[in-house]
Amino acid sequence: MIHHLHLKETDPDVARLIDEEDERQRTGLELIRSENHASAAVLETLATTCGDKYAEGYPGRRYYAGNEIVDKIENLTRDRAKKLFGVPYVNVEPYSGSPANLAVYVATCKPGDTIMGLDLPSGGHLTHGWKASVTSQFWKSVPYHTDAHGLIDMNDVARLAREHKPKLIWCGATAMPRVIDFEPFAQIADEVGAYLVADISHISGLVVGGQHPSPVPHVHLVTTTTHKTLRGPRGAIIMVTEKGLQKDPDLAEKVDRAIIPGLQGGPHMNTIAAIGVALHEAAQPAFADYARRVVENAKALADALKKRGFKLVTDGTDNHLLLVDLTPSGVGRGVFFHLALERIGLYANKNTVPNDPSSPFYPSGLRLGTPAATTRGMGPQEMETVAGWIADVRDAISDYQLPTEKEERGATLKRFRAFLSTDERFASLRSDVEAFCLRFPVAALKND
Ligand SMILES: Cc1ncc(COP(=O)(O)O)c(C=O)c1O
User: Fold this and answer.
1) How far apart are the C-alpha atoms of 50 and 71, rounded to whole Å?
2) Closest by alpha carbon to 231, among 272, 270, 176, 281?
3) Contacts of 404 (CB under 8 A, 6+ apart)
Protein backbone atom coordinates (compact mmCIF):
# COMPACT_ATOMS: atom_id res chain seq x y z
CA MET A 1 0.00 0.00 0.00
CA ILE A 2 1.22 3.52 -0.74
CA HIS A 3 1.48 5.38 2.57
CA HIS A 4 2.87 8.75 1.35
CA LEU A 5 4.61 9.12 4.71
CA HIS A 6 7.03 11.90 3.75
CA LEU A 7 4.37 13.74 1.82
CA LYS A 8 2.00 13.67 4.77
CA GLU A 9 4.65 15.32 6.92
CA THR A 10 5.71 17.93 4.37
CA ASP A 11 2.45 18.81 2.71
CA PRO A 12 -0.66 17.45 4.41
CA ASP A 13 -2.93 19.28 1.95
CA VAL A 14 -1.60 17.52 -1.14
CA ALA A 15 -1.28 14.26 0.81
CA ARG A 16 -4.94 14.41 1.78
CA LEU A 17 -6.03 15.00 -1.79
CA ILE A 18 -3.93 12.09 -3.00
CA ASP A 19 -5.46 9.90 -0.29
CA GLU A 20 -8.87 10.96 -1.57
CA GLU A 21 -7.91 10.04 -5.13
CA ASP A 22 -6.61 6.65 -3.93
CA GLU A 23 -9.96 6.14 -2.20
CA ARG A 24 -11.91 7.15 -5.30
CA GLN A 25 -9.98 4.58 -7.33
CA ARG A 26 -10.37 1.87 -4.67
CA THR A 27 -14.11 2.32 -4.28
CA GLY A 28 -15.07 3.11 -7.87
CA LEU A 29 -14.59 1.40 -11.20
CA GLU A 30 -12.68 2.91 -14.13
CA LEU A 31 -14.59 2.04 -17.27
CA ILE A 32 -12.82 4.79 -19.19
CA ARG A 33 -11.32 2.86 -22.05
CA SER A 34 -8.05 4.81 -22.08
CA GLU A 35 -7.26 4.27 -18.40
CA ASN A 36 -5.66 1.47 -16.47
CA HIS A 37 -4.01 0.75 -13.13
CA ALA A 38 -0.24 0.59 -13.44
CA SER A 39 1.49 -1.91 -11.17
CA ALA A 40 3.06 -0.93 -7.86
CA ALA A 41 6.47 -1.50 -9.49
CA VAL A 42 5.69 0.98 -12.27
CA LEU A 43 4.38 3.58 -9.81
CA GLU A 44 7.39 3.11 -7.53
CA THR A 45 9.71 3.70 -10.46
CA LEU A 46 8.01 6.99 -11.23
CA ALA A 47 8.77 8.22 -7.72
CA THR A 48 12.55 7.74 -7.94
CA THR A 49 15.59 10.01 -8.24
CA CYS A 50 15.70 9.38 -12.00
CA GLY A 51 13.07 12.12 -12.20
CA ASP A 52 15.63 14.62 -10.93
CA LYS A 53 18.12 14.01 -13.72
CA TYR A 54 18.49 16.23 -16.77
CA ALA A 55 19.44 14.19 -19.82
CA GLU A 56 18.79 16.30 -22.93
CA GLY A 57 19.87 14.30 -25.97
CA TYR A 58 20.19 10.55 -26.38
CA PRO A 59 22.31 7.84 -24.75
CA GLY A 60 25.97 8.55 -25.47
CA ARG A 61 25.24 12.04 -26.77
CA ARG A 62 23.81 14.18 -23.97
CA TYR A 63 24.13 17.89 -23.29
CA TYR A 64 24.64 17.31 -19.55
CA ALA A 65 27.12 15.41 -17.41
CA GLY A 66 26.35 12.50 -15.10
CA ASN A 67 24.23 10.49 -17.52
CA GLU A 68 26.07 7.18 -17.50
CA ILE A 69 23.36 5.44 -15.47
CA VAL A 70 20.31 6.97 -17.14
CA ASP A 71 21.91 6.13 -20.51
CA LYS A 72 21.76 2.49 -19.45
CA ILE A 73 18.14 2.90 -18.39
CA GLU A 74 17.10 4.48 -21.69
CA ASN A 75 18.99 1.84 -23.68
CA LEU A 76 17.34 -0.94 -21.68
CA THR A 77 13.89 0.54 -22.28
CA ARG A 78 14.64 1.01 -25.98
CA ASP A 79 15.87 -2.60 -26.32
CA ARG A 80 12.78 -3.93 -24.59
CA ALA A 81 10.46 -1.89 -26.83
CA LYS A 82 12.29 -2.99 -30.01
CA LYS A 83 12.06 -6.63 -28.99
CA LEU A 84 8.44 -6.53 -27.85
CA PHE A 85 7.11 -4.75 -30.94
CA GLY A 86 9.63 -6.24 -33.42
CA VAL A 87 10.97 -2.94 -34.78
CA PRO A 88 14.54 -1.81 -35.55
CA TYR A 89 14.26 1.64 -33.99
CA VAL A 90 12.38 3.32 -31.16
CA ASN A 91 12.36 6.68 -29.44
CA VAL A 92 11.08 6.45 -25.84
CA GLU A 93 11.42 10.13 -24.95
CA PRO A 94 8.04 11.66 -25.99
CA TYR A 95 6.35 13.19 -22.96
CA SER A 96 3.00 11.71 -24.01
CA GLY A 97 0.95 10.60 -27.02
CA SER A 98 0.22 14.05 -28.43
CA PRO A 99 3.88 15.19 -28.52
CA ALA A 100 4.81 11.82 -30.05
CA ASN A 101 2.32 12.36 -32.84
CA LEU A 102 3.48 15.93 -33.36
CA ALA A 103 7.05 14.64 -33.69
CA VAL A 104 5.92 12.31 -36.48
CA TYR A 105 4.57 15.29 -38.42
CA VAL A 106 7.79 17.22 -37.87
CA ALA A 107 9.88 14.22 -38.98
CA THR A 108 7.92 13.50 -42.15
CA CYS A 109 6.20 16.69 -43.35
CA LYS A 110 6.88 20.32 -44.06
CA PRO A 111 4.40 22.91 -42.75
CA GLY A 112 1.45 23.07 -45.14
CA ASP A 113 1.80 19.50 -46.46
CA THR A 114 -1.40 17.49 -46.78
CA ILE A 115 -2.15 14.80 -44.20
CA MET A 116 -5.06 12.40 -43.68
CA GLY A 117 -6.55 10.90 -40.52
CA LEU A 118 -9.85 9.54 -39.20
CA ASP A 119 -11.96 12.52 -38.17
CA LEU A 120 -12.72 12.95 -34.49
CA PRO A 121 -16.49 12.30 -34.54
CA SER A 122 -15.74 9.02 -36.35
CA GLY A 123 -13.33 7.95 -33.62
CA GLY A 124 -10.04 9.59 -34.64
CA HIS A 125 -7.79 11.48 -32.24
CA LEU A 126 -7.37 15.25 -32.04
CA THR A 127 -3.78 14.94 -33.27
CA HIS A 128 -4.83 13.12 -36.44
CA GLY A 129 -5.75 16.48 -37.99
CA TRP A 130 -8.94 17.46 -36.18
CA LYS A 131 -9.98 21.06 -36.82
CA ALA A 132 -9.43 22.24 -33.24
CA SER A 133 -5.90 20.80 -33.09
CA VAL A 134 -2.77 22.65 -34.27
CA THR A 135 -2.18 19.63 -36.50
CA SER A 136 -4.84 21.01 -38.85
CA GLN A 137 -3.44 24.55 -38.64
CA PHE A 138 0.16 23.63 -39.48
CA TRP A 139 -0.75 20.94 -41.99
CA LYS A 140 -3.59 20.67 -44.50
CA SER A 141 -5.89 18.08 -43.02
CA VAL A 142 -8.15 15.94 -45.20
CA PRO A 143 -10.15 13.73 -42.83
CA TYR A 144 -11.65 10.37 -43.75
CA HIS A 145 -14.68 8.89 -42.04
CA THR A 146 -16.53 5.84 -40.81
CA ASP A 147 -19.51 4.50 -42.74
CA ALA A 148 -23.10 4.26 -41.50
CA HIS A 149 -22.17 1.07 -39.57
CA GLY A 150 -19.31 2.75 -37.69
CA LEU A 151 -16.57 0.97 -39.69
CA ILE A 152 -13.71 2.82 -41.42
CA ASP A 153 -14.81 3.57 -44.95
CA MET A 154 -11.82 2.35 -46.97
CA ASN A 155 -13.38 3.57 -50.23
CA ASP A 156 -13.42 7.05 -48.69
CA VAL A 157 -9.74 6.66 -47.69
CA ALA A 158 -8.72 5.52 -51.20
CA ARG A 159 -10.73 8.21 -52.99
CA LEU A 160 -9.41 11.05 -50.80
CA ALA A 161 -5.83 9.78 -50.95
CA ARG A 162 -5.88 9.60 -54.75
CA GLU A 163 -7.40 13.06 -54.98
CA HIS A 164 -5.25 14.86 -52.39
CA LYS A 165 -1.96 12.90 -52.51
CA PRO A 166 -1.19 13.28 -48.79
CA LYS A 167 2.35 13.20 -47.45
CA LEU A 168 1.23 11.30 -44.35
CA ILE A 169 -1.72 9.03 -43.52
CA TRP A 170 -2.70 8.14 -39.96
CA CYS A 171 -4.39 4.84 -39.23
CA GLY A 172 -5.51 4.13 -35.71
CA ALA A 173 -8.24 5.54 -33.54
CA THR A 174 -9.28 6.60 -30.12
CA ALA A 175 -12.80 5.13 -30.24
CA MET A 176 -12.99 2.19 -32.65
CA PRO A 177 -14.46 -1.04 -31.29
CA ARG A 178 -13.33 -3.20 -34.20
CA VAL A 179 -10.03 -4.59 -35.52
CA ILE A 180 -8.15 -2.16 -37.71
CA ASP A 181 -6.96 -3.82 -40.89
CA PHE A 182 -3.62 -2.15 -41.66
CA GLU A 183 -2.99 -3.88 -45.00
CA PRO A 184 -5.52 -1.95 -47.12
CA PHE A 185 -4.14 1.28 -45.63
CA ALA A 186 -0.67 0.20 -46.73
CA GLN A 187 -1.84 -0.45 -50.28
CA ILE A 188 -3.34 3.02 -50.48
CA ALA A 189 -0.36 4.78 -48.85
CA ASP A 190 2.10 2.94 -51.10
CA GLU A 191 0.06 3.80 -54.18
CA VAL A 192 0.13 7.55 -53.44
CA GLY A 193 3.65 7.56 -51.93
CA ALA A 194 2.54 8.63 -48.44
CA TYR A 195 4.13 7.79 -45.14
CA LEU A 196 1.78 5.50 -43.22
CA VAL A 197 1.76 5.79 -39.43
CA ALA A 198 -0.26 3.58 -37.10
CA ASP A 199 -1.25 5.21 -33.83
CA ILE A 200 -1.82 2.14 -31.66
CA SER A 201 -2.13 4.10 -28.40
CA HIS A 202 -5.30 2.27 -27.54
CA ILE A 203 -4.47 -1.21 -28.64
CA SER A 204 -0.73 -1.57 -28.02
CA GLY A 205 -1.34 -3.85 -25.03
CA LEU A 206 -3.60 -5.99 -27.19
CA VAL A 207 -0.98 -6.06 -29.96
CA VAL A 208 1.80 -7.30 -27.67
CA GLY A 209 -0.67 -9.62 -25.96
CA GLY A 210 -1.61 -11.22 -29.28
CA GLN A 211 -5.20 -9.93 -29.37
CA HIS A 212 -4.89 -7.48 -32.27
CA PRO A 213 -2.80 -7.81 -35.45
CA SER A 214 0.40 -5.79 -35.40
CA PRO A 215 0.74 -2.88 -37.85
CA VAL A 216 4.53 -3.29 -37.98
CA PRO A 217 4.79 -5.19 -41.32
CA HIS A 218 2.55 -2.64 -43.07
CA VAL A 219 3.44 0.85 -41.85
CA HIS A 220 6.47 3.12 -41.80
CA LEU A 221 5.99 4.43 -38.29
CA VAL A 222 4.09 3.45 -35.16
CA THR A 223 3.21 5.62 -32.19
CA THR A 224 1.73 4.48 -28.92
CA THR A 225 0.99 5.89 -25.52
CA THR A 226 2.25 3.65 -22.75
CA HIS A 227 -0.54 4.13 -20.22
CA LYS A 228 -3.62 2.57 -21.81
CA THR A 229 -3.87 -1.17 -22.54
CA LEU A 230 -0.06 -1.36 -22.24
CA ARG A 231 -0.53 -0.54 -18.54
CA GLY A 232 2.58 1.56 -18.02
CA PRO A 233 3.19 5.13 -16.88
CA ARG A 234 1.92 8.15 -18.83
CA GLY A 235 4.33 8.40 -21.75
CA ALA A 236 4.74 7.40 -25.37
CA ILE A 237 6.97 5.59 -27.83
CA ILE A 238 7.65 6.29 -31.51
CA MET A 239 8.81 3.35 -33.62
CA VAL A 240 10.27 3.22 -37.11
CA THR A 241 9.77 -0.07 -38.93
CA GLU A 242 12.00 -1.85 -41.48
CA LYS A 243 9.53 -0.66 -44.09
CA GLY A 244 9.98 2.91 -42.82
CA LEU A 245 13.76 2.67 -43.05
CA GLN A 246 13.47 1.31 -46.58
CA LYS A 247 11.34 4.27 -47.61
CA ASP A 248 13.66 6.73 -45.91
CA PRO A 249 16.96 5.52 -44.39
CA ASP A 250 17.17 8.79 -42.40
CA LEU A 251 13.73 8.38 -40.83
CA ALA A 252 15.02 7.31 -37.39
CA GLU A 253 17.40 10.25 -37.27
CA LYS A 254 14.59 12.58 -38.35
CA VAL A 255 12.35 11.30 -35.54
CA ASP A 256 15.14 11.78 -32.99
CA ARG A 257 15.73 15.35 -34.19
CA ALA A 258 11.99 16.06 -34.20
CA ILE A 259 11.85 15.18 -30.50
CA ILE A 260 14.99 17.04 -29.48
CA PRO A 261 15.88 19.77 -30.48
CA GLY A 262 12.59 20.02 -32.45
CA LEU A 263 9.89 19.78 -29.79
CA GLN A 264 11.21 18.78 -26.41
CA GLY A 265 14.02 19.43 -23.97
CA GLY A 266 15.03 17.00 -21.24
CA PRO A 267 13.30 13.62 -21.26
CA HIS A 268 11.54 12.44 -18.11
CA MET A 269 13.98 9.74 -17.09
CA ASN A 270 11.78 8.39 -14.29
CA THR A 271 9.03 7.83 -16.87
CA ILE A 272 11.45 6.17 -19.27
CA ALA A 273 12.57 3.83 -16.49
CA ALA A 274 8.92 3.09 -15.65
CA ILE A 275 8.15 2.42 -19.33
CA GLY A 276 11.00 -0.11 -19.19
CA VAL A 277 9.35 -1.82 -16.20
CA ALA A 278 5.97 -1.87 -17.94
CA LEU A 279 7.53 -3.40 -21.07
CA HIS A 280 9.16 -6.07 -18.92
CA GLU A 281 5.76 -6.84 -17.41
CA ALA A 282 4.13 -6.88 -20.85
CA ALA A 283 6.69 -9.44 -22.06
CA GLN A 284 5.56 -11.99 -19.44
CA PRO A 285 3.11 -14.78 -20.33
CA ALA A 286 0.66 -13.37 -17.74
CA PHE A 287 0.27 -10.25 -19.85
CA ALA A 288 -0.96 -12.23 -22.87
CA ASP A 289 -3.55 -13.74 -20.57
CA TYR A 290 -4.47 -10.25 -19.36
CA ALA A 291 -4.92 -9.02 -22.95
CA ARG A 292 -7.12 -12.03 -23.72
CA ARG A 293 -9.28 -11.32 -20.67
CA VAL A 294 -9.61 -7.62 -21.56
CA VAL A 295 -11.24 -8.62 -24.85
CA GLU A 296 -13.28 -11.39 -23.24
CA ASN A 297 -14.63 -8.89 -20.72
CA ALA A 298 -15.42 -6.30 -23.37
CA LYS A 299 -17.39 -8.90 -25.33
CA ALA A 300 -19.16 -10.03 -22.14
CA LEU A 301 -20.07 -6.42 -21.29
CA ALA A 302 -21.29 -5.88 -24.86
CA ASP A 303 -23.50 -8.97 -24.73
CA ALA A 304 -24.84 -8.11 -21.28
CA LEU A 305 -25.76 -4.59 -22.41
CA LYS A 306 -27.40 -5.83 -25.62
CA LYS A 307 -29.42 -8.31 -23.55
CA ARG A 308 -30.72 -5.29 -21.63
CA GLY A 309 -31.78 -3.51 -24.80
CA PHE A 310 -28.79 -1.24 -25.39
CA LYS A 311 -27.68 -0.57 -28.96
CA LEU A 312 -23.95 -0.74 -29.70
CA VAL A 313 -22.07 0.92 -32.54
CA THR A 314 -20.95 -1.94 -34.87
CA ASP A 315 -23.19 -4.17 -32.72
CA GLY A 316 -20.31 -5.28 -30.50
CA THR A 317 -16.55 -5.20 -30.07
CA ASP A 318 -13.33 -6.96 -31.07
CA ASN A 319 -11.13 -5.13 -28.60
CA HIS A 320 -11.15 -3.40 -25.22
CA LEU A 321 -13.88 -0.83 -25.81
CA LEU A 322 -17.49 -0.49 -26.73
CA LEU A 323 -19.52 2.43 -27.84
CA VAL A 324 -23.13 2.56 -26.70
CA ASP A 325 -25.47 4.38 -29.07
CA LEU A 326 -28.02 6.07 -26.82
CA THR A 327 -30.07 7.66 -29.61
CA PRO A 328 -32.95 5.14 -29.23
CA SER A 329 -33.65 6.74 -25.84
CA GLY A 330 -33.16 10.33 -27.06
CA VAL A 331 -30.65 12.63 -28.72
CA GLY A 332 -27.61 14.03 -26.86
CA ARG A 333 -28.09 11.96 -23.70
CA GLY A 334 -24.45 10.91 -23.26
CA VAL A 335 -23.92 13.63 -20.68
CA PHE A 336 -26.76 12.34 -18.47
CA PHE A 337 -25.35 8.81 -18.45
CA HIS A 338 -21.81 10.10 -17.85
CA LEU A 339 -22.92 12.12 -14.79
CA ALA A 340 -25.28 9.49 -13.39
CA LEU A 341 -22.69 6.72 -13.68
CA GLU A 342 -20.09 8.97 -12.08
CA ARG A 343 -22.51 9.52 -9.19
CA ILE A 344 -22.56 5.80 -8.43
CA GLY A 345 -18.79 5.32 -8.90
CA LEU A 346 -18.73 3.93 -12.45
CA TYR A 347 -16.44 6.15 -14.52
CA ALA A 348 -17.16 6.22 -18.24
CA ASN A 349 -17.32 9.01 -20.76
CA LYS A 350 -19.78 10.53 -23.15
CA ASN A 351 -18.88 10.23 -26.82
CA THR A 352 -20.24 11.00 -30.25
CA VAL A 353 -21.75 8.16 -32.31
CA PRO A 354 -21.52 7.90 -36.12
CA ASN A 355 -23.78 10.54 -37.71
CA ASP A 356 -24.54 11.88 -34.26
CA PRO A 357 -27.66 14.07 -34.47
CA SER A 358 -26.30 16.08 -31.51
CA SER A 359 -23.04 18.00 -30.91
CA PRO A 360 -19.64 16.75 -29.60
CA PHE A 361 -20.37 18.64 -26.35
CA TYR A 362 -23.72 16.88 -25.88
CA PRO A 363 -23.05 13.65 -27.75
CA SER A 364 -25.43 10.72 -28.03
CA GLY A 365 -23.07 7.95 -27.03
CA LEU A 366 -21.22 6.47 -24.11
CA ARG A 367 -17.81 4.86 -24.32
CA LEU A 368 -16.86 1.99 -22.04
CA GLY A 369 -13.67 0.00 -21.71
CA THR A 370 -12.44 -3.01 -19.76
CA PRO A 371 -8.63 -2.59 -19.32
CA ALA A 372 -8.78 -1.31 -15.73
CA ALA A 373 -11.57 -3.66 -14.57
CA THR A 374 -9.59 -6.60 -15.98
CA THR A 375 -6.42 -5.47 -14.20
CA ARG A 376 -8.41 -5.63 -10.94
CA GLY A 377 -9.27 -9.26 -11.69
CA MET A 378 -12.87 -8.85 -12.81
CA GLY A 379 -14.32 -11.31 -15.28
CA PRO A 380 -17.45 -11.88 -17.41
CA GLN A 381 -19.64 -12.39 -14.35
CA GLU A 382 -18.68 -8.96 -13.01
CA MET A 383 -19.36 -7.44 -16.44
CA GLU A 384 -22.89 -8.80 -16.14
CA THR A 385 -23.27 -6.97 -12.80
CA VAL A 386 -21.88 -3.74 -14.27
CA ALA A 387 -24.29 -3.95 -17.23
CA GLY A 388 -27.14 -4.40 -14.74
CA TRP A 389 -26.17 -1.17 -12.97
CA ILE A 390 -25.91 0.72 -16.27
CA ALA A 391 -29.46 -0.47 -17.06
CA ASP A 392 -30.62 0.58 -13.58
CA VAL A 393 -29.17 4.04 -14.20
CA ARG A 394 -30.91 4.21 -17.59
CA ASP A 395 -34.24 3.46 -15.91
CA ALA A 396 -33.64 5.98 -13.14
CA ILE A 397 -32.80 8.86 -15.50
CA SER A 398 -35.41 8.13 -18.17
CA ASP A 399 -37.26 11.39 -17.47
CA TYR A 400 -34.27 13.53 -18.44
CA GLN A 401 -33.88 14.53 -22.10
CA LEU A 402 -31.56 17.13 -23.60
CA PRO A 403 -33.61 20.26 -24.34
CA THR A 404 -33.51 21.28 -28.02
CA GLU A 405 -33.22 24.93 -26.97
CA LYS A 406 -29.56 25.53 -26.11
CA GLU A 407 -30.43 28.15 -23.46
CA GLU A 408 -32.40 25.56 -21.47
CA ARG A 409 -29.60 23.02 -21.30
CA GLY A 410 -27.69 24.57 -18.39
CA ALA A 411 -30.80 24.71 -16.20
CA THR A 412 -31.75 21.12 -17.05
CA LEU A 413 -28.29 19.87 -16.14
CA LYS A 414 -28.43 21.78 -12.87
CA ARG A 415 -31.75 20.11 -12.03
CA PHE A 416 -30.29 16.77 -13.08
CA ARG A 417 -27.29 17.16 -10.76
CA ALA A 418 -29.59 17.98 -7.86
CA PHE A 419 -31.69 14.93 -8.70
CA LEU A 420 -28.56 12.73 -8.67
CA SER A 421 -27.54 13.94 -5.25
CA THR A 422 -30.98 13.58 -3.65
CA ASP A 423 -32.64 10.54 -5.22
CA GLU A 424 -32.21 7.51 -2.95
CA ARG A 425 -31.73 5.08 -5.83
CA PHE A 426 -28.32 6.58 -6.65
CA ALA A 427 -27.14 6.49 -3.03
CA SER A 428 -28.08 2.83 -2.84
CA LEU A 429 -26.39 1.97 -6.15
CA ARG A 430 -23.28 3.85 -4.98
CA SER A 431 -23.07 1.62 -1.89
CA ASP A 432 -23.44 -1.50 -4.03
CA VAL A 433 -20.68 -0.36 -6.41
CA GLU A 434 -18.38 0.46 -3.52
CA ALA A 435 -18.82 -2.92 -1.83
CA PHE A 436 -18.27 -4.64 -5.18
CA CYS A 437 -15.09 -2.68 -6.00
CA LEU A 438 -13.54 -3.36 -2.60
CA ARG A 439 -13.64 -7.07 -3.50
CA PHE A 440 -11.25 -6.32 -6.38
CA PRO A 441 -8.37 -4.28 -4.94
CA VAL A 442 -6.19 -2.03 -7.08
CA ALA A 443 -2.78 -3.72 -6.78
CA ALA A 444 -0.83 -0.60 -5.82
CA LEU A 445 -3.40 0.27 -3.13
CA LYS A 446 -3.66 -3.15 -1.50
CA ASN A 447 -3.32 -3.29 2.26
CA ASP A 448 0.03 -4.67 3.30
C1 LIG B 1 -5.22 7.29 -30.45
C2 LIG B 1 -4.62 8.29 -29.50
N3 LIG B 1 -3.51 8.94 -29.87
C4 LIG B 1 -2.93 9.85 -29.07
C5 LIG B 1 -3.47 10.15 -27.84
C6 LIG B 1 -2.85 11.26 -27.02
O7 LIG B 1 -2.24 10.84 -25.90
P8 LIG B 1 -1.97 11.85 -24.68
O9 LIG B 1 -3.28 12.08 -24.03
O10 LIG B 1 -0.99 11.08 -23.87
O11 LIG B 1 -1.37 13.09 -25.26
C12 LIG B 1 -4.62 9.49 -27.41
C13 LIG B 1 -5.19 9.80 -26.08
O14 LIG B 1 -6.33 9.68 -25.80
C15 LIG B 1 -5.22 8.55 -28.27
O16 LIG B 1 -6.35 7.92 -27.93
Assistant:
1) 11
2) 281
3) none
**Residue 56 annotated in active site:** yes
- Domains of the chain: which residue ranges? 46-282, 285-445
The mean pLDDT value for 55-63 works out to 96
Residue 435 has pLDDT above 70, yes or no: yes
* Alpha-carbon span 323 to 177, nearest angstrom: 7
Fold of the domain spanning 285-445:
Aspartate Aminotransferase, domain 1 (3.90.1150)
Task: Band the pLDDT of 121: cuts 50, 70, 90.
Answer: confident
Residues 309, 311, 314: CA angle, nearest 5 degrees:
145
> For 46-282, which CATH class?
alpha beta
> Which residues make Cβ contacts (< 8 Å) with residue 442, sequence separation at least 6?
25, 26, 37, 375, 376
- The predicted pLDDT at position 448 comes to 52
The pLDDT tens digits of the residues spanning 2-44 come to 678 899 999 999 999 999 999 999 999 999 999 999 999 999 9
DSSP state of 127: G
Task: Please choose from 35, 119, 127, 176 the residue to mutate so as to test ligand 1's pocket, defined by most ligand atoms within 8 A of CB.
Answer: 127
Helix (H) or strand (E) holding 91: strand 89-91
C-alpha 133 to ligand 1 mean position (Å): 13
Neighbours of 349 (CB within 10 A): 22
Ligand 1, residue 200: give the atom nearest the CA.
1
311 counts as catalytic: no
Instruction: Give yes or no: 183 in active site.
Output: no
Q: Which of 280, 223, 385 is nearest to 38 (CA)?
A: 280
Catalytic residue selected from 44, 54, 306, 432: 54
Residue 446 confidence (pLDDT) above 90: no
Which residue's CA is the nearest one to ligand 1's atom 1? Answer: 174
- Per-residue pLDDT tens for 214-245? 999 999 999 999 999 999 999 999 999 999 99
